[in-house]
Amino acid sequence: MRCMQRRAFLRTVGAGGVAGLGGLAGCLATGQRAPRLEHEHRTWRDYSTDWHAPTDPPTTDVSVETIVQQLEIPWDVAFAPNGDLFVTERVGRIRRVAGRALQTVVEPTDAVDATAVPAEPDDAGYWETWWLPGGEGGVLGVAVHPHYPDPAWLFVYYTTKTDSGPENRVVRYDLDAPNPTASARPIVTGIPADAVHNGGRLRWGPDNYLWVTTGDAGTPALAQDGQSLAGKILRVQANGRPAHDNPNIRGRDRRIFTLGHRNPQGLAFLPNGAPVATEHGPDGRDELNCLDAGRNYGWPHARRPTEYAEVSDRYPRPLLSTGGSPSWAPTGTVFFTGDAVPSWSNRLIFGQLFGQRLGVATITPASQSPPPGDVTFDADWLHDDYTVTVTHVLPALGRIRGAFQGPDGGLYAITSNRDGRAKGENLPRAGDDRLVRITAD
């Protein structure tokens, strides 16, 4: 699972401050025993150490098929091992998609009120209504237990109000319960929340731990606070306790895998198990980072080329940084291994909100030649083990909230055109928001 740069790796190993990522352990859920989960990433079905980055550019000729439409700000998608498909809507629902029909399975009763703009607003300037009720909060990430439907557990990340202010939390629901909404069992609470920078992605990793991305809640200093869960990547068991081999660093909450993040909203895993995260930057400066256990990713101290140079190896350098160019606002991402679009296989696919398109990224080891793309990231202040090339596709969909792979090898995406920020020709229109399937022409 290593993605650490060569020069930093030797120094960190010598310091002896980070635990390894192997081993087996049972996973006991609060009040109910779950099937035993193996926590060795090498047993992951998709694990590979000999995968190769593509050398040809990805095709831009693809077709888009709408699966369901008229959603209200869909935020995340989770495929269960048995093929069940779940979609969250930021306005307060989790839906199961059956064919082209939708069934509401959970409605968190304590989620903040969030609303969506009409699918066809009559005011062309409606997109300037930047802050709809709920801000960037609401019902966000979703993940299903690796052994679903036994147990039929759904994990949801959402924003709620407490006596001490808003917070984000991860809650587990049992879909086999007579009333799944009433089965709510919080497993991670106290994640700072605000109108902005709530993070929110949930993913089960190849290690069968639950990974959680959190934003800095609009307070950059929290990202450096080892006792705050804001601006972090968390790695926990199904009951919310720390992963057994998480970094054990004095002064840090044991649930923290990495810190120093601004607003990470995408999380995926390379074939060797290495985790990568997309992250929103200030004034552009969006990043793609490869995550090493225990490391500090620099926000708010490092974001510009000169800042990374000045701090030397204190902070891992990003695989990709958009620099001072217009923001992409990269979101949900997947390392695609399916065959729906063959030339996109073994590439990282991610949505772009501000960029209003899909990004297809090739991550090429430094010893190989990268394929051509719309933009290449190989500056000397970036990660020295890889070159990343990105091709932009599908601008007609508008604000793409995320890309996802189904168990059948299919590729899917969701839009967020009804969140009040779509602009230009991508204003909400009849049918928005939607879940789509992408295939090669």
Summarize the structure.
This protein has two helices and 27 strands. The chain is mainly beta and 441 residues long. The chain has a five-stranded antiparallel β-sheet with strand order 20-21-22-24-23, with no helix packed on it. A four-stranded antiparallel β-sheet has the order 3-27-26-25, with no helix packed on it. It has a four-stranded antiparallel β-sheet with strand order 4-5-6-7, with no helix packed on it.
What proportion of the residues is helical, as a percent range?
A: under 10%
Alpha carbon gyration radius? 20 Å
Order of helices and strands: HEEEEEEEEEEEEEEEEEEHEEEEEEEEE
What is the CATH architecture assignment of one domain? 6 Propeller
Oligomeric form of this entry?
A: single chain
Tell me the span between the first and last alpha carbons. Answer: 35 Å
Descriptive key words:
441 residues, Neuraminidase, five-stranded antiparallel beta sheet, four-stranded antiparallel beta sheet, 27 strands, globular
Structure description:
The protein has 441 residues and is mainly β. It has a domain at 6-14 and 21-48 and 72-337: 6 Propeller (Neuraminidase). Helices cover 4% and strands 34% of the residues. The chain has two helices and 27 strands. The chain has helices spanning 6-15, 305-310, and strands spanning 28-29, 32-33, 62-68, 74-79, 85-89, 93-98, 101-106, 139-144, 153-162, 165-174, 185-192, 202-204, 210-213, 232-236, 256-259, 264-269, 275-279, 287-290, 320-321, 330-336, 347-352, 357-365, 375-377, 386-393, 400-405, 411-415, 435-440. A five-stranded antiparallel sheet has the order 20-21-22-24-23, with no helix packed on it. Strands 3-27-26-25 form a four-stranded antiparallel sheet, with no helix packed on it. A four-stranded antiparallel sheet has the order 4-5-6-7, with no helix packed on it. It starts with 5 loop residues before the first helix and ends with a strand.
